[in-house]
Amino acid sequence: MASKLLRAVVLGPPGSGKGTVCERIARSFGLQHLSSGQFLRESLGGGGAGLGLQLRSCLMDEFASILAASPPLIPVPLCPGTFPGFPRTLGQAKALDGICELDLVISLNIPFETLKDRLSARWVHPASGRVYNMDFNPPHTQGIDDLTGEPLVQREDDRPEAVAARLRKYKDAAKPVIELYKSRGILHSFSGTETNKIWPYVYTLLSSKIPPVLSEEEH
Q: In the beta sheet, which residues pair with residue 130?
């Protein structure tokens, strides 16, 4: 594990590659990858519909206890439009201030057309949250999850007709969040159309903050 405590969030619109970037950060720097979406799926595993309302009130407490732990952490927001997203609004960003002080914020800026294509080609395994892209990361068997053999689904908000509205909603909600972190001098923005091309710059930034446990090529 890395010797220095680092707390960071990765921001970006739906389909921008936040999950991929965070997984690489976790492997390369010995940090823990915390996904609000994974917490939600695990908590809902044995519950009914009413549990979602309870989670809305207790999720911040769950993050508080985990973020106070000793290992280095990376809290990771889920895509806007999928409960809860963190932090996807100014209110959530200010609530996070009450839990911990962030060291840095990484913002992924991806062109609209690229996002539209990625989202429209995205299919998921509902139980695990595994994501496939039919263009560059397809399942071994079309429509089937590689690990469980269960069917994949396309979320309603990943369908072409819903994508434009999702991206507009994200842009409106994210603007004040990004401005907040920019004003604090902890925002680092990276632009591009491919995660593989953005990653080296993210790696270089983090290497200036904490020592990597893997080289850039080993990620």
A: none
Residue 217 domain flag: no
Task: Give domain status of residue 100, yes or no.
Answer: yes
Total domains present in the chain: 1
Domain assignment present for 178: yes
CATH number at residue 197: 3.40.50.300
Tens-digit pLDDT string for the chain (219 aa): 444 567 888 899 988 888 888 888 888 888 766 665 555 555 555 444 443 334 444 444 455 454 444 344 444 443 322 233 468 888 888 888 887 788 889 999 999 889 988 888 999 999 888 889 898 889 999 999 999 999 999 988 888 788 888 888 889 999 999 999 999 999 999 999 999 999 999 999 999 988 888 776 665
Contact 162, 81 (CB under 8 A): no
Residue 170 belongs to domain spanning? 7-208
Q: Using the structure block, give the residue that is written with the tokens 């068997």.
A: 141
What kind and span of H or E run contains 190?
strand 187-191
| Residues 64 and 4 sit within 8 Å (Cβ to Cβ) | no
81 is a domain residue: yes
Q: Note whether 58 and 66 are within 8 A (CB).
A: no
